């Protein structure tokens, strides 16, 4: 068996021994001399990249909705009937921006419509009409089977306190 394998290998290697490549070299030389018909492509020089420092990392991201100004952050005081009650104890969902809260369900308990709100920390809290949520003093004004209507109070530097309507809808 070894002898048969050795003879086969010698026969295979013998085919590689005659390196008559003159025909291949002549064909390659003809290809090199033939005109291409197109001028060579000139690659333009690319200017060197100059990095620029971003100096606004400590300010609001332009990709997020603007946060409303909290009453405690404002020096000017506006006399308005819309001003929120600063003495009221904050409810659990008021620590989260309204954009981060999700309506996960509604149900009827004791004749009252109740909404189930999921917070970013994973907790689910039930709210009724009159409860507060969001960082802009949002108050639940209406609970429907598919959505919750909220009235937020925001402070505008020019005109004082204003109301803004918002809705949390049930994602299906």
TrEMBL record:
Source taxon at top rank = Bacteria
Q: Which Gene3D superfamilies is this protein grouped with?
A: 2.30.30.830
**PROSITE patterns this protein is in?**
PROKAR_LIPOPROTEIN
Q: Which InterPro entries match?
A: PilP
* Name assigned to this protein: Pilus assembly protein PilP
Record organism: Vreelandella aquamarina
């Amino acid at each position: 068996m070894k002898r048969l394998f050795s003879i086969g290998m010698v026969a295979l290697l013998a085919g590689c021994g005659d390196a008559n490549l003159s025909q291949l070299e002549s064909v390659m030389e003809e290809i090199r001399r033939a005109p291409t018909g197109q001028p060579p492509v000139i690659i333009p020089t690319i200017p060197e990249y100059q990095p620029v420092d971003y100096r606004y990392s400590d300010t609001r991201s332009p990709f997020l909705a603007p946060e409303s100004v909290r009453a405690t952050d404002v020096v000017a005081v506006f006399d308005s009937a819309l001003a929120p009650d600063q003495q009221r104890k904050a409810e659990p969902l008021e620590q989260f921006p309204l954009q981060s809260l999700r309506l996960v369900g509604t149900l009827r308990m004791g004749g009252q419509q109740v909404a189930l709100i999921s917070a970013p920390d994973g907790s689910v809290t039930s709210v009724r009409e009159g409860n507060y949520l969001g960082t802009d003093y949002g108050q639940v004004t209406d609970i429907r089977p598919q959505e919750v209507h909220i009235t937020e109070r925001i402070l505008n530097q020019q005109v004082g306190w204003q109301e803004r309507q918002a809705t949390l809808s049930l994602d299906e």
